[in-house]
Amino acid sequence: MSESTQAWVAAGVRAVIGAHTQAQDAGRTDEIVALYTSDAVLELPGTDPIQGHDALRAAFKGWEPTQPQLHLVTNTVVTSADLDEATAASDVAFLQRGESGWSVQVTGHYDDTLRRVDGTWLLSRRTTTYQV
Question: What is the pTM of this model?
């Protein structure tokens, strides 16, 4: 794969991850779900996998913010890529603003698999792990 193609794939991957983060922190559930393939799987520690748009919509609806929050996603590295599928690893810190100001609630890691569907990069699997 050429360097320009690698850069194009990496930009597409990062754009999806960034759009997901901003939509989640703003509570825009439909925008989040639109970033996933119809058969996508979301894996979180301690829960059964969440699969498909309906299940994702219900989950993210239940997680809509009740106070200001930020997912700070950083250190994203595209770990493999071709023209139709890519994997990426990112670190994340989740912050909420309460009466005392902003505080880190949890840190973790995302392992993402993305597929290109009709020319658009979408998440097909996200595995989240938390760090203590």
Answer: 0.94
- For residues 33 and 2, give the distance between their C-alpha atoms in angstroms, rounded to a whole number: 31
Pairing type for strands 85-98 and 69-81 reads antiparallel
* Token output for 14: 């990062």
Q: What is residue 99's three-state secondary structure?
A: coil
Q: Could you give the CA distance from residue 73 to residue 83 in angstroms, rounded to a whole number? A: 24
pLDDT at 1: 80
Tokens 């930009």: give the residue: 11
Q: What is the DSSP letter of 11?
A: H
Q: Do the Cβ atoms of 20 and 32 come closer than 8 Å?
A: yes
- Reported as a single tens digit per residue, the pLDDT across 55-103 is 999 999 999 999 999 999 999 999 999 999 999 999 999 999 999 999 9
| Cβ atoms within 10 Å of 132's Cβ, excluding its own | 5
CA–CA separation, 64 vs 30, rounded Å? 11
